[in-house]
Design goal:
The chain is α+β, with helices and mostly antiparallel strands. It has nine helices and four strands, in the order E-E-E-E-H-H-H-H-H-H-H-H-H. It has two domains: about 100 residues, no CATH class; about 120 residues, no CATH class.
Length: about 260
């Protein structure tokens, strides 16, 4: 009888791949000298105790972010996706543009939709780096091949890019509700709405994965699919696939 597959997630790095499972993570990178380096550890923060609707999305995000400081400590050669001056400039520019749009005389729905899309610009810019897109593809190929037991393509049905449609929709709805509140409470309300949008988007994403043939699921997945297909992933080289496979193997070794 075949052993049960471990549910895996991942993140592309500028020079490698991070793979994480329910209780462990592993990362592999290629140094400028061509050396393959790997680091792995058990997770210090686990989202399992918060596995409830509307709580599990933010909890899993915290769990994923908690890996990064230890990743930098154990594998200082790793380069995170946003560690580029151009991306940092884009983040500042995006924040300024969002404030301008929200102050413009637009309808609430149009204003919030535009603000949600502008806030995603830094991520889109980060993904334009060819190595990052290729390592993203390598991450998908390695994890997908492991999960399905056969060679898979550079796109994956559970890629975080599929959160794009749900997150834009829930963020716009939350923004519209905040815009109808008194100005004195809009600051805290907007922060709460952003957290609620993330939680609701995660639940929608889970429903989409379970019901891929539903028309609404297809419509919500379309923006993320186009982002993944056209911008976020590229065909990896054999050397990049080797890096992703090393991260996958190290993570599975700890999970077992």
């Amino acid at each position: 009888m075949a052993s049960e597959k471990v549910r895996l997630g991942g993140m592309a790095l500028q020079n490698g791949v991070l793979v994480h499972g329910p209780t462990a993570w592993a990362a592999a990178v290629r140094t400028p000298a061509g050396e393959l380096k790997v680091a792995a550890a058990k997770k210090r923060v686990l989202a399992g105790p918060f596995d409830r609707p509307l709580l599990r999305g933010p909890a899993r995000l915290v769990e994923s972010l908690a890996i990064l400081p230890e990743l930098r400590r154990r594998l200082p050669e790793a380069r995170l996706p946003f560690e580029r001056p151009a991306v940092l400039v884009a983040m500042v520019t995006s924040a300024v543009a969002v404030r301008f749009v929200r102050g413009a005389p637009l309808r609430p729905v149009a204003s919030e939709l535009a603000s949600s899309l502008l806030s995603l610009a830094p991520a889109a810019l980060a993904l334009r780096a060819s190595d990052l897109a290729a390592y993203h593809g390598a991450e998908h190929v390695s994890i997908g091949t492991y999960e399905h037991g056969e060679p898979r393509a550079k796109e994956h049905e559970r890629c975080g890019s599929h959160l794009l449609g749900p997150f834009v929709a829930t963020s716009a709805l939350g923004g519209v509700l905040v815009s109808r509140m008194p100005r004195s409470v809009r600051g805290p309300a907007r922060a709460a709405a952003s957290l609620g949008a993330l939680a609701a988007a995660t639940e929608l994403f889970g429903w989409m994965v379970r019901n891929p043939e539903r028309p609404l699921a297809k419509a919500l997945a379309r923006p993320g699919h186009e982002l993944q297909h056209r911008l976020a992933t590229a065909e990896p080289s054999p050397a990049q696939l080797e890096v992703a496979e090393a991260a996958l193997a190290a993570c599975l070794e700890l999970e077992r």
